[in-house]
# Entry
Amino acid sequence: MSNDTVSFAPVDPKNYGRAGRLYHGLTTVDFVGRRKIWFSVSLVIIVLGLGSLAIRGFNLGIDFKGGSSWEVLAPNTSILNMTHAVEKAGLTNPSVEKLGSDTYQVTADINALSQSQQAVVTTQVVDAMAKTAHANPIQVSTSNVGPTWGGQITNKAFEALIVFFIAVVAYISIRFEPKMAIAAFIAMVHDLLVTVGVYSIFGFQITPDTVIAILTILGYSLYDTVVVFDRVRDNTQGVLKGGDLTYSEMVNLSMNQTLARSINTSLVAILPVLSVLLIGADLLGATTLRDYGLALFVGLMSGAYSSIFIASPLLAWMKEREPRYRDLAVRVNVRTDRRTLTASSAALQGAQTSASNARPQRSGGASGTIQARARKPKRR
# Structure
């Protein structure tokens, strides 16, 4: 039996343009070396968000702070006309939304008023909305929401968030290692703080849909981070053993190899959400999708950023402090015959390492040749 080996010629990055190098995993972006820049950008956004949160707080929806809501079918009016009408009727800072193509919803917090004053204001708002919509007052629906329901949603969301974090840390610690779990956890907290800060800075209204969307984006951010960590683990068992790379350089290599996949995954998730916001909410008037889509868009952008620029550089920073990887960095840096490992040659070396580890060891005979056993003599 012949001992044939299959070899692959390393791909020359010069044969491709920028898009080609990105597609084939041949980029050489120094993610880990520039981690101070990435961390500083995130720190500035988070600090601004927390400052806004301390000064301005949240713009809570009616489901969280309580209040009253009115709806009417008005095909021949606008949000501006409806806002002027209800403000003249006695509402302060009302929120007017267009539900679908012709239905308008007005929400306001009138809990500070007495019961008699609330009844008077409600009657005036109903009459004003009916007049603006050219409809009968009985066609205006009214509902009151207490803050208790919103508080219950918030408590359930916090409970779900804590359970989610515990499950994620436990899974990644078992599936990969504890330091990867710490890096993934910090990346998710980063996404949460960035999303909350953006909502506070721009005054976006927080609704139950927002809470649901935030829980959704954490799962997406974790998925993208795990994809990178899986390649880091493979390169740790293969490429890193060659002694040509430090741990940080190996993480850089892994991120460049998965960069195209991370970008494609992010675009596939962000583009439909963006279409919901621009076409569904703005053009078609489906404003009920706006709260959910806005939180998804902000969170997905933050999740894509953290999975590339936060989680893996943070992992490299923690791992480089382990004695074995400190010693590896010293040995690699003092080598005179050190060679530059490209993405293509790293893939080739990893495949050869995996093949050599999987090849069974045989004793006797030439290498790569299976020796036939002597046949037992037949009994006569």
